[in-house]
Each structure stands twice: as structure tokens, then as C-alpha cells.
Structures
1.
Amino acid sequence: MSLHSSLGLASWLGGQHHGPERHWKSVSSLACAGDEDLTFSEGTPTQECTAAILLCTAPVAGLCCITTDDPKLAFIRVLEKMFHVEQVGRVDAHAVIDPSASVHETAVLAPGVVVMSGCSIGARSMLFPNVVLYPNTQIGADCRIHAGTVIGADGFSYHPTAEGLRKVPQIGRVVIEDGVEIGANSTIDRAFLDETRIGQGSKIDNQVHIGHNAILGRSVVIAAQTGLAGSVTIGDGALLGGQVGVVEHTHIGKESRVGAQSGVNKDVDDGQTVLGTPAEPAMKMKRIYAALRKLPDRD
Amino acid sequence: MSLHSSLGLASWLGGQHHGPERHWKSVSSLACAGDEDLTFSEGTPTQECTAAILLCTAPVAGLCCITTDDPKLAFIRVLEKMFHVEQVGRVDAHAVIDPSASVHETAVLAPGVVVMSGCSIGARSMLFPNVVLYPNTQIGADCRIHAGTVIGADGFSYHPTAEGLRKVPQIGRVVIEDGVEIGANSTIDRAFLDETRIGQGSKIDNQVHIGHNAILGRSVVIAAQTGLAGSVTIGDGALLGGQVGVVEHTHIGKESRVGAQSGVNKDVDDGQTVLGTPAEPAMKMKRIYAALRKLPDRD
Amino acid sequence: MSLHSSLGLASWLGGQHHGPERHWKSVSSLACAGDEDLTFSEGTPTQECTAAILLCTAPVAGLCCITTDDPKLAFIRVLEKMFHVEQVGRVDAHAVIDPSASVHETAVLAPGVVVMSGCSIGARSMLFPNVVLYPNTQIGADCRIHAGTVIGADGFSYHPTAEGLRKVPQIGRVVIEDGVEIGANSTIDRAFLDETRIGQGSKIDNQVHIGHNAILGRSVVIAAQTGLAGSVTIGDGALLGGQVGVVEHTHIGKESRVGAQSGVNKDVDDGQTVLGTPAEPAMKMKRIYAALRKLPDRD
């Protein structure tokens, strides 16, 4: 049965069908959905829903609904099916690849991409326009590196001498493991020695800066405009909000959470949630913020 | 009469001429102006002025002055006339334009620009070098998008599942209305569904990040390195300082002001001025800052 | 004698040799060094050292050591010698250079570099991929400009008028003096009038934003994601941490220090160290932070 029928879709998704059969042509948000649209709601919709079909957790009277435990996941599965494009390996004629680089035949390199000597790019990885890989950068399989991101530029390091600042040569490299997505206009610096490493499945947003010799574990999530100074280490599954700054040589534990705009200047324990500048445990920081708001009215 | 004569210039500007006629060859700042230069002062100049001609609000003894209500506007009009270049539509041979994109014949696309499928670019808009437009991005008329800016990259969204993070396909688009200027190395993400929209006449500085599904009204001004998380809405005429962060789904009212480096985690009313992290009304935050400075000396 | 012998290396470095002669093939960090590696320690190593040869300040029993006053400088000298590549002037075929630009024959311009009209680039300077120079930008000798950096885009300036915001034409330029290094994806805006200037030997990290008409002295160091609003001036040898914001027209004195994430809204004296938002003298700010942490527990 067609996935464009609510009955067919319910069957494919393994969901429960409620109300009369409907058909959909396109997808939309709950707020914008018209009567030929499929949409979803993570909870019970509080606004009038004018979609043809709603994916949700509990049926809504008068609507054609498909209920599942996770309607957003169901919706994602539909999008993946609708918008799936069989990826064919392709190096655009306007990409510039050093002959010593190794590019998997299924990788996609867009116009303006520059890949310097000794780099490697794994299967099915996509480099969007104007991405730059400095020498010896290793990109795993199934990575997506968005436009304008620069990987492997020199770490920022100068040694003070009697004659002034002397550049510390940066001879390490960057390794991006499998399944990593990196947003647009981010920068990940090469190591002084050894390597800077982004662990498997990590997700990094736009305009993030990752300093030399940082080591990120698996499935680390970093929101936009966050910056890590040199030699920061981050455990698996940690989540950093946007515009966070982390001081050099700091360790951020596994499954920890760092609130947006925090300034982290000491280690964060596994599972801990911190907030503020300098960052403190979130509960404490919220009490500080509350006290601050009352401060002008004291004595 | 020549605009390079103070008398001719006063007439063209509709200003009042004071002192003997002088001639100018070039323009300069008040501080650097030499005796063949035209310059301006927004107030009464407190430094010695060695320019040939001064645009100002009240005459200065011993100088050739042209007075107007708004000397800076008068100066801008001179600059516009002096530096006006008749713009001729041109797509540089080093730009890469998908055949399905629609580029107005008067638009200018510089080297390294990449325009993907389904994009449109309006009359007289300029894309500076290495700008990237992801699929279906719409750019209105009279826009200026500076070098390295990326419009339409995927919004940052992953859905937690039992098997780990699953990418939420980003199938919406970005719409940039007429008369928008965007600085260098900024990023504006495509919507999950529906659209991310930058309203008419808005001005966005360098290294600004605008998350998926943000909706900006008309004439919004955003200074450098500010970041908006997903689904932020901003009313007409709002002004955000530099390095501001705004939490997702926050609304910033019309004609409001957000001080630099603020962290906005709740809605801002129309016309309100807020400051600090977490942002508070500016008057309150200034009292908090004052109290903070005294805090170490209390009891 | 070969520099790959510890005796030969000690002699070349002018250091003191301790222990039996050893030979090295490659370099590594102290933590990762294997038995064919040369490494260094800035202090006395607290971890077991398994390197062939250690550069350090005092001999370690049982190891082949070379002692010098500054082992890191000694190591840098080795790296410089090992990784030295005779730079040959080269403009990549995928760079786009306006015919009116002046490029020194020893300069290196990578793929995707765009150099607009009237620019000049000095001896031995390197522009990494996708660097963009707007018209009239001047780059001195021995500069390194990393990938994706944009120099000379319009300053962010609009004049309020009865008809709305009117763009202030930006007709000044940017001057980068000799020996400057600028990281990846940074932006340095052209001046409104006159110039934006980066002084000799200054070092600027990734994703730094420098507004129009900023004037930086010699050997200024600015860490990643810091932003300077318009017309900021910075004295020689000042050091700004990462994610700092500086309000327009502020002066930051010679040899001063600004802590990471600070918001500087008033002048900083020569030699002063400031911290926080709004920035205060660091000792004071640390007392404020300490008091803050106790605030929730006060009555």
C-alpha cells in the first residue's frame, strides 16, 4: 500500500491508525500544515491542526492520526525515505585535491573544497563547498563537513623568547572518526605533536573552534560558537551549549552538560551539569543568579 | 558649479556655507584630514581641524564650513556620489552556479561563490567571494552578502533514540528579503521544515550565527559574533549587540535592545532594553553590576 | 656529527649532554614518545619517559638528556630544522588575483584565494586556501593568513535617517604589517575612512573579529573568537584571551592582559590585567567571583 495513504503509512511505521483514511502529498510543521500535509506533534497539539495526517502519541478527535511512542522518530523515518538520494561518489571539477591524498570512491567533494597532501577521506563522507583540509587530516566514513569549515590549520602557539614570540611549529594532525558531522565555518586545529581527535558520532555545530590537541570522545555534542582552547579533553556523550569557552588542559567528563555561554576553567566530573562563568554546578549557579537579582535591594 | 568647490557642495547638499570658498580633492576623517580634504564632525570638533572643508552643525571660526542638521548624512551623500560604481551584472568565471538556480541579470557573483540547486538571487544583489548558498536559498533584491558567509547549511538537530543520535533531516529553506546586508563568515541555517527568514532591510555583521527556523522582522540589526539558537523570533527594528546568545524559541520584541555579550533566555518585550547573563532589564542589570563591584567589601 | 645523534644534537643546540649517546628518528610529545623519539619537558618530567632523548633543564637519572635553559626553544629549533621547506613563491592556478594587485614573487597564494583590486602582498607571505582580500588591503612580509579568513570587508555601520538605516560607505583599507599570523575564518574589516591596522608581529587566532578602524600595536596576541568593535586601539604586547568582547573606541594599554570571555567597556591601563563582564582589575574580579560563590548562603 502507498506510504502516501495514512493506512499504508501506519503499517510501514508500525503505528496505530485512528480516524478515516487520508492521503498526503507533502510534509510541513504543525503550525503551517495544510490539508494535503503530513505533520507530527511531540506531545498533544495545543493548536488547531489542519494537516491531513498527524503523527502523535495519542489520538486527537476528528483527525486522521497515526500514534507511536516516538512520533518525531516516525516523522524522521518518513523524511529519510522521501528525501533519500542515492549518493554517488563525486569530486567536483572545482575541488582541488593533492595527488597524495586518498579519497574514497564514494566520497563527495563539492566545489571549492581544498584537500592538501597526505589527507584521507572515508566512504560516503561529504565535504560541502569551500571546506579546507590541511596536510595529513584524516576524515573517517559517513562524515558530513559543512561549507567553509577549516580542519588542520596551525594550533595557536608561540614561545616567548628574548627576541620576541617564536612560532611553535605545529606538526601534528587532525583525526575525525566515523559518523561525525561538523557545521559551517568551524575550525579544528592540528596538534602541536601527536593529534587532535574528534570521536565517533560526535556532532559539532557552526562556528565552533577546537584548539590543538583536543581529544573528544564518542557522541560529543557541541553547539554553535563554542570554543575549546588547546589540549581540552571531553568524555563520551558530553553536551556543550552554544558560546561556551573552555580553558586549556581542562577535562570535561562523560555524559556531562555545560550550559550555554559558560566559561569552564576547571574539570567537570562525569555526569555533572555546570553553568556560568566561571562555571559552577548548575544548581548552585542558579541560586547565585537568583541571589544576584535580589542584590541591589539588599540593605 | 563643481562639487569640489565648497560653494558648489553647499548648494548641492542644501547646506549653509560659512567662510571663504575652498576646494577639496579627497575625503578623510577629522583626525587625519589635510588641507585638500573634505571631512565632517557629528558635534562641535574638539580637536584642531586642518581640513579644507568641514561639514558640521555650527560654523567654526576660521574654517570653511558647510552646516546642515545631519553632517554625517551629508558626508555619506558625498561618498555615495564619489564612489558610486554603476553595477553591471556579472557572474565570475570562478563562481559555480547550479543550472537550476535563478540569478537576476543585474546580480554580481564573485569568484568562489557556490550556488546550489533551486536558489534564486534578486536584482542588484552582490555575493562576495566564497559565499555558499545551499539548495533552495532565496536572496531578494539589493542584498549584499560578504565573503565566506554560508546560507542554508543544515540546522543543528539530532533526535535521541535507543541507538544513539539520529540526524533530523533539514528540508526547509532560507529566505533573505530585499535590502539585507550580511557580513563575512556568518552562517544562517536552513529550516527543519518551513523556513528561516531574514526580514527586509536587516543588517547582520560578521561571524553571526542564525539557527534553523529563526524569523527576523524588518530592519533588525545584529552585531558581530552573536548567535541565535533555533526558532528564535525577532521583531522589527530590534538591535542586538555583539556576542549575544539567544536561547531557542525565545522572542525578542520590536524596537528592543540587547546589550553586547548578553545571554537571553526569556522573551524580551517590545521596546525593552536588556543586558547581562541571564539577561535582565538594563537598568536593573546595571544596579546588579554596581552592587557586585561592592560585594567583596561587604561585611 | 649528525643531529640525529644525541651528541651531535647537544653540540648543535649548545646544550649539555648527559648519559650514553642515543639516536632519534622522529619527534613526539613526552606522553607518546617511543624509544626512537626525541622529546622535551618544560619542567622536570613527572611521568615515566620512554623517549630515546629528552631535552630538559636538569638531567634525569637513567635517561639520555640534553639540558638547556629553555628546552622548548631547543625543541622548536629542531622542529624548524626538520620541517623546514624552502618556500618557493607560487600563485596557485585556482587563486584569483586582480591584475592591479601587487604580489611579491616569493609569496605563496593557495587555491581559492581571492585578491581584489589594489591589494599588495609582501615577501614570503602565505595566504592559505580561500583567503579573501577586499580592495586595497596591504599585507606585509612574512605574514601567514590561514584558510577562510576575510580581510577588508565593509565595516558594520549604518546611519539612522528618517527613511531608515543608510549604509555608511566604507572607503578605508586594512594594513597588515610584517610578521603577522592570522588564524582560520577570522575577519578584519576595512576602515570607514583611513585604515584598520594590525601591528608588526601580532598573532591572531581563529574566528577573531576585528572591527573597522581598529589599530593594533606590535606583538599583540589575540586568542580565538575574540571580537573588537569599531575603533578599538591596542598597545604593543597586549594579550587578549579567547571570546573577549571589546566595546567600540576602547583603548587597551601596552603589555596589558585581558582574561578570556571578558567584556571590556572602558579603557585598560598599560600593564593592567582585567577580567570579567564588565571587566575589572583581575584581583578585584577574583574577589567578586569568590564572594559570588558564597552569596546564596548569606541570609
2.
Amino acid sequence: MLDLTINRDSKPPLYRQIAEQIKTQISNGRLPANSRLPTVRGLARSLGVTRLTVQNAYAELQADGWVEATVGRGTFVSTAVQQMSLQPTIGQYLTPDSAINDMLAINQVIGVRSMAMAHADPSLFPMDAFWQQMAQLRLEANQLFSYGPIQGDAALRVAIAALLHEDGMATSPDDILVTSGAMQSISLAAQAICQPGDMVLVEQPTFLGVLNVLKAQELRPLHLPIQSHGPNLDQMEQLIKTHRPRCFYTVANYHNPTGITTSAAKRQAILQLAQKYNLLIIEDDIYGKLSFAGPPPSSYKQQDDDDRVLYLSSFSKVLMPGLRVGYLIMPPAWRDQLLTLRRATDLCGTGLLQRALAHFLQDGGLKKHLRRVLPIYQERRDALLNGLQRWMPTAVRWSEPQGGFSCWLSLPRCAPPGVLYHQALQNGFAFTPGEAYMLEESNQEYLRLCFGNLSTEGIEAGVKLLGMLIQKQLATGQTHGDWLPYV
Amino acid sequence: MLDLTINRDSKPPLYRQIAEQIKTQISNGRLPANSRLPTVRGLARSLGVTRLTVQNAYAELQADGWVEATVGRGTFVSTAVQQMSLQPTIGQYLTPDSAINDMLAINQVIGVRSMAMAHADPSLFPMDAFWQQMAQLRLEANQLFSYGPIQGDAALRVAIAALLHEDGMATSPDDILVTSGAMQSISLAAQAICQPGDMVLVEQPTFLGVLNVLKAQELRPLHLPIQSHGPNLDQMEQLIKTHRPRCFYTVANYHNPTGITTSAAKRQAILQLAQKYNLLIIEDDIYGKLSFAGPPPSSYKQQDDDDRVLYLSSFSKVLMPGLRVGYLIMPPAWRDQLLTLRRATDLCGTGLLQRALAHFLQDGGLKKHLRRVLPIYQERRDALLNGLQRWMPTAVRWSEPQGGFSCWLSLPRCAPPGVLYHQALQNGFAFTPGEAYMLEESNQEYLRLCFGNLSTEGIEAGVKLLGMLIQKQLATGQTHGDWLPYV
């Protein structure tokens, strides 16, 4: 019989307590694939709960693919559940490239609770409303499946301009380039304004994707440490003076991977530095609308008097990444070059999804969606911070994100890089190892925990496990020299 | 009253004869926007046809957006009909970049018959079958709108590998990279194998998009004239010896823009040259399945013993460009680099459309579609060749494409570049001006006529107009020196 405990006084409903404990046992291998679960009647009796409660727990496990039920035979742990030992490629390297691959691969593995990817929860996607918009386009479909305009669907550009107006950015639909996601915006922006060999100032740590873009374009990253209110300004000026970078790539709101928001004062100072040294700014605002505590400070673009800011965002985090729709405000000086590069990259996006998105936005679908999901994401953030408070040894530090999906942990290094990551994976829990973000080994160990795509109960279970692993490591491992908390 | 003539002995049904003549008068400005058409009853009486015939003609014009009907007021030429004089940006320049822009812009203009774009006919898209496949994915939609695999949907890669097997290319789903159309395949392939400054051998003329890719990546095109059975081999070897290009980009089947197919013998000789001089080949087979007279000669990839061919194709021409789905067979040596570049470009494609396409292919939808549309495209090709035979002065030469969408004309130059193009546009007819494809002004004038996206009647009307414009030009203009027909 399963070894489960239930707590009638705690907040999660009984069926979720049961489901989450079974997930934990599947994750850590105590219930391997094909294990038979107790009968509904048997488990209900032994736990002293109703059969409906157990049925609900099993139904949730089944919906997520963790178990399979066969009429007359019973309920079994899914054959799709893969122990991480069967995934030898995951965690093999700790480079940016491998880390992104791992995140995507782990996303497909059933039997792992993942906080590895800064990702909205697919079960919260506004699919009914969006699907309805698509369905209504049947009569226009032949046109929408033809070649579309390079700059993107006109109706969508109108809707995006309206969104930007609300955020204080006066821009015309004709200034907007619709892209296949923020990655493409970054790639096009960098290619438009830089020459191979140029240096690009980035926060350290920064979005792994941008490091891939720079490498592919033979641009050189120049790393600017980020602190609790944004980049260190003295270091920034020093780096600019010494290396003369072409531009500064920044995620000022709910930064990935740290969750930090650059303060209004720092933004002003940074804009002044940019003007002083003629630095362009690529402002990636992909998380800006995922705010738990009122809107973030004014964007660089809002204060951009001399067209030095290339502002970009996307619907991947606020709606659904599978739309592959991002956008970029084209400053007049770079407009032709950006359109030329887009034409030489993939010509245009998918008309059907762009038009459906346009109608979804026009109908207020985004606002409605955010009203629904932001409280849920905030609750998950709270579950994470509470869990960290409860389970982490005192040596561990973490950021307190006011939006977005990312939280950044630092602790004294007392095991070689990757050990903690692999231990967690073996126990069915995934995070993003900090090594992927860092240039060189250091005395600190960092890790990113993303709270967007896991239930509060899953977050609690994961943080508890992680806390115990870290505790053990700190107790038995050797710390190497001094260390400084990063955040 | 309208000046229309009908011919009861000719093939097109009477209603189409009426509709096409009205289109001609709208195109050339004799019926400007907001003109009132005769009543159904009045026109039927004056032409001696049934009212149903006129109703059908008006219904077709309305469906295409050329006219609008208001109950009680009558039928009017649509306000959406735009005289080309209102589109001052079209035809302003004759560069590759502008030509592509023009094609896309003209595509949106109601009131122009366009043979400018090598494009399937949207009214022939297999939309019912495809839409049904999409509709059946509702339950998987949340997963399909998440981040997808970088390499593309697994089911789609299996279906593509099966397609390639039928064409004699033994490839595994794991060798396939799904891209956002052939443009992205070309862009990634070139970036993977070339360094800035490298020379790339291309046919002259060649696909305009590839010239944009080369320019964006600072690669240098090396132009190899194409003849009636493919590139000139002696010139090819000479160019290779002198300039040592890194690779050869080729459209061997139903070449764009000339419609020429490289013969089997030339393919073998070219592969030998490639081996001799260690030249890589980027084989763009986007038109290969659009064959009117049996399959084309074996692809380079089929005969590629030493992995020097990067084979790519797409569903844009055989199905619908709005899918934005192309594919590339990754040779082992370039696999990692191609995946890395894709990751740094736009991460992944749209899961919904990729999965729906996978199911469409699995159900035999592509074969069924081609059985339906190839006879129609062949009929249009025939209408074009017959029209050219009938309306062109003897000095004009043209290719005889056995597939694809492109036909290439050459004639003695007797007017400055762009004059013929603008004259045709003013009369509501669009082609692609050859200047966009050529490096320098020459004594010949070239133009591309694409027959995929216009009815046989529209093609006849367009070619007749073009023939008269050319006749007039040859009669009044000065030819400059000698000229050689290009094909």
C-alpha cells in the first residue's frame, strides 16, 4: 500500500494532497513505470476519505499523463514516465545551448516537476477564446494562408500599437515589425545595428537566448553584473569607456533569470550614459505585463528622445509561445535595414495566427486573461518565497520578483558544478543550473527557479526537496574560500 | 452601356467571358471605382443571354472583390479597386528587394491581374481538409501552443521523411530540420556553411530571395548563366577555378524565374565538378512536385554519396505559403551548427500548424491535392504558351516550363528599364520585371510570367495586352545594338 499522509487542516484540497504525494513518489522513482496503484476503494478506506476524493486525485494524475487507467485492470504509473537516468543527454553540459535544449527536453518528460523554464502554464492558456477567434476566420482562410505582408498583419499591428499606447509609448502601426517571437526580434535588432566583432553589453546573468544570438552573429558579450535594483552604474560606465560596446541588451522588468526590476532612477541614469557614449539600447520587455504589484517603472522607450531604443516584446509569456508572435518598434533610422533582414530571414509569419490574435486583442482578450492569471502566478510566487523561507538553510539567498516567472538563488559552492542539478533531476525535480549563465566557475552556486508552470503544491514539494539536498550538501561538502551572495 | 462581346463557340462559359471582360475594363481604368454596372436584366437583354448568366458573372466579380452589390441600389465597381497610379511605391525601383515588395503589394491590390508572383492559387488551397485537421487538434491545443521542439514537430518530421523516401531520398526523421519556409532553410544553410566574404555560385537569373540572403550575410554571388537544359558547364568550371566559391545554390527543377529544368546529364556533371573542387550544393527543390510531365530527373541529394548536398524544400508552393513550413535535410557534418543557428534565430515554429500538416500528409492529403491541381496548373501553362504563340511578335522568345509556376521571356530592348513594366501596371496587369534579376543593363529585356495564380481567361487577357504593348514598343522604339535571346 502507498505511504501517504493527509492533513485535513491544510489548504490544498485532499485530492490534490494525494495527487501531489503520488507525483513525488513517481518523480523520485519509488513508484516506477507500470507500478499498479491501489484501487480507489482500497485507498479511500485506508486514508479514511471518500471514494470521490481518490477518484479526483487519480483523474488529475491521468490528465497530466502520470498514470494510465484501464477498465477492469486498474490504474498504473504511465509507461511514459521516464526516469532521468534514461535521459543521458540531459544535464550533460552546462552551456547556454545545452541548458536551453535541456529545458525543452525536460518539458516533454512526464514524471518530472520542472521549474526550469520561464514559461507560462499551458493549462492556463486562454484557448477557448483564442480558438473561437480562429474558427471565425474560416471564410478568410484562403487569403490568410497566402503570403502575408513582411511587416506583419495590419490589423495586428494596429492592435499592438494600441497596447503600446496604454503603456505610454506613442507609436504608429507602421513603426511596428511583427516577428516570430522575441528571439527573432533580438536577432534582427542585433544584426541590423551591429557588425561582426562588435561588443554588446549584457546584464550578467542574462537571457541565455541572447548569448546564442551573439555567438551566431560573431558579436562579443560584455558582462555587466546586475544588483538588486539593476546594473551597477559605475561598472557600466567603466565598461563602456573601456570597450565601447555598440549597444546594451537589457531585460529591465522582472529580469530573466534573476527576477530583478531595474529601478526608475537607474533607468534614467542608464539613458544618460547611453546618450553620453552614443550607446544603443535593445529593450526586451517580454515580462513587463506580468506584474504583481502595479505597473513597472517607465520603459526606456517611453523616455527615448533620440531614437536610440529598439523596444521589443512578445506574446509568448503573457499568452502562448506557440503563437510565435513577437514585435519590435522600428526606429526610423533602422527601419529599412530591419525590413530587409526580415525579408532575408523567413519572409513573413503565419497569417491565420496573427489575424486571430489581432481579433483576440481587439476584443480585450489579453486584459481579461491577465486579470485571471496574474493572481494565480502571484500565488505561485508566494508559495515559492514561503517555501524558500521554510526549507532553505540560512546560507542561501534569493531574489523577490515582483512579476515575471524567474527567481534567482545563490549559495556557497560546496560541490562541483552540476552535482546539485543532477541530484535534483534524479529525484524528479528540475531547475536551471546557474553555470549556464556564468562565464567562469566561482565560489558561488546559482540556480534559477521558475514558478509560472507548476502548482503551488508542486512548488512546495520541489522547494522542500531542493532544501534538503542543499542542506545535505552544505553539511557534508567543503565550501571553497569566501563567497558573496549574488542577490 | 458596357461594350462587351460574347462568343458562343469559344470554350469559357459565357458568364466567365463577361466577368473577364469587365475585369479588363476595371483593370485598365475604363471602369473606375464606384462606376455603376448595368442591371442584370438590362445587360442580359443587350447581350442576348439569360439573367442567370449575368448573375453568375456579377457573383464571381463580387467574390473576388472587384465589385460590390447593394440591395436596391445596384452593382458598383468596388471602392477597393486601386488604380496603380495610387500606388506610387510600386515599381519605383527594380532591385531584388523592391521587386519582392512589389509582388507582395500587388497581391493585395484589387483591380490588377497579376502574373508577378510564383505562387499557388489561393482559391485552390485544400482548405476544407486542412481546416478539419486543425479542428481535430482542439484537445491537444494547449500543448501545441507551448514551446515546441527546435527541430520541428516529430510527427511532421516522420511524414516528411516518408515523402522524401518516395522521391528516392533515404533520410531519417532525425535528419530533418523543419523551418519557417524555404527562405529560412536557405538562410540557415548559407549561414552554417559560409563565412562572410565567401562567394556563392548561383544561376543567373536566380530566385530573388537568395540574393537578399547573400547580401544580408555579406556573401558574394557569383553568377552562372543558365541555358535551356541548365547551367553552362564550361563556364561553371571556369568560375569555380577562378573564384573558388564555397557552394552552389541551385533550383534544378522548374527553376525560378526561368522554368528551366536541369537535365540529368548536367546534374551528374555538376556533381562531379562539385566533388572535384570540393563545392557544397544547396539544392532548393521547392517546385519539384509541381510536375506536368512525369517526375523530374533524380535530385542531387539522391546521388549525394559524400554528404555535400544540403537539400531543402517547402510546402509553400505545393500547398499553402501561410503554413510557413519548409524543411532541410541536415548532413551530419552541419547538423549541430544548423540546430544552433535555428535556436539563435527564432527558436521554433508553430506547433498547431505543424501537427495539422503532419496529419494532413499522413492522410494522403498532399497526393490528393496534387492530383486535383496539377491538371489545372498545366492548363494555365498551356493557356500561357498558346497566348504567347498568338500575341507575341516574332522577336520574343520564351521558355517552355514542364512544371512549377514560372515562364521567362526575352525580347530586344527598345525602351529604358521599367517602361514596359509601368505600362502594363497602368493597364492593370503585373509581371516581374527582369531587371530585378540582372546584374547590369543589357540589350535584352527580360520578364517573368507566373501562371499559377490566374485563370486561363485572365492569362489570355494579360498576354494579349502584353503582346500589344510589346508590339507597339518594338514598332516605335529603338533597339540598341545586337541582342541574344536568353532562352
